[in-house]
Amino acid sequence: MPTIAFQLVILAATLHAVWNFATKKIAGDLAVIWNGLVMACITLTPFIFFLAPDQMAFQKVYPHIIASGVTHAVYFFALAKAYEYGEISVVYPIARGSGIAGTAIAAFLLLQETISPIGVIGILAISVGIFLLGLKNGHQKHGILFALLVGLMIISYSIVDKLAVEISHPLFYIYGFTVLSTLLLAPYVMAKKRHELSEAWRSKKRYSFTIGLGSMGTYLIILFVFQMAQVSYVVAARELAVAIGALLGFIFLKEHLTARKAIGIIAVVAGMILIKMA
């Protein structure tokens, strides 16, 4: 992986851990998350006018926008539910980890990406580390099930988005699918969370801002990195966020740090080094 791509992935991983920490702090309140998505769409709108029509390539990329918009809507819904039921040091590792090996396999089958032996070991190390962070927490089975659904969505949108940024500017593309996913979530939010929306706007704007702008900014970085490196490496490397997220949970939410979780964090970091070498 090129050095600049690796550095951008580390930045994205840090931002990702921060906005997921904010999501856990509000216990996965979908009203807060949805307000954040609206903020992100409004913030990004002016920048779209600086793009030329050929950079957008709407006629070519709209199927990707639809596919990614749907999967991201399910992603945010499942993520909210996962944090409603589970701890960040459990949900986050399983959600992210379940997408790593699946994305590598899908990239090999669909994109003909080849992975070096060092890259394979790095991906496996990160996967093992992540599952060590999230194992043996059967009392959080609802959180784990929703976390696995998040992982499935990660596999789906990672492949679609890798193909999309080859034909359209990442800025236009992320704007398109974020607007669509926000609209798709709107009926559910209005029906089930209408009363929480005003309260979320009054007292939890800082969380909405962090989640909305953080999620969009994080993934915009990743879309640019998709143009520089293999999707299987990028998806694996960005899971440094899991170790950061787990540490935030241990330090600020007083979640229990066990020897197994410590080994898991070490495995993730070791896998990151191998991915960089690959």
Structure description:
The protein is an all-alpha fold and 278 residues long. It has 13 helices and no strands. It has helices at 3-25, 30-48, 53-56, 58-85, 88-110, 117-134, 141-164, 170-192, 194-203, 205-226, 231-237, 240-252, 259-277. The N and C termini lie close together (6 Å).
Keywords:
single chain; 278 residues; mainly alpha; 13 helices; 0% strand; globular
**What is the average of the pLDDT values?**
85
Q: Please state the oligomeric state of the protein chains shown.
A: single chain
Order of helices and strands: HHHHHHHHHHHHH
What does the radius of gyration come to? 18 Å
What class would the helix/strand composition place it in? mainly alpha
**Morphology:** globular
Number of helices: 13
Q: In total, how many beta strands?
A: 0
Helical proportion, percent range: over 70%
Residue windows where pLDDT falls under 50 for at least 5 positions: none
Report the end-to-end length measured between terminal Cα atoms. 6 Å
Sketch the major β-sheet. Answer: none
Task: Sum this structure up briefly.
This protein is mainly α. It contains 13 helices and no strands.
In terms of topology, how is this protein built?
Blueprint: H1 3-25, H2 30-48, H3 53-56, H4 58-85, H5 88-110, H6 117-134, H7 141-164, H8 170-192, H9 194-203, H10 205-226, H11 231-237, H12 240-252, H13 259-277
Helix pairs in contact: 1-10, 1-12, 2-8, 2-10, 4-7, 4-8, 5-6, 5-7, 5-11, 5-12, 6-11, 6-13, 8-10, 12-13
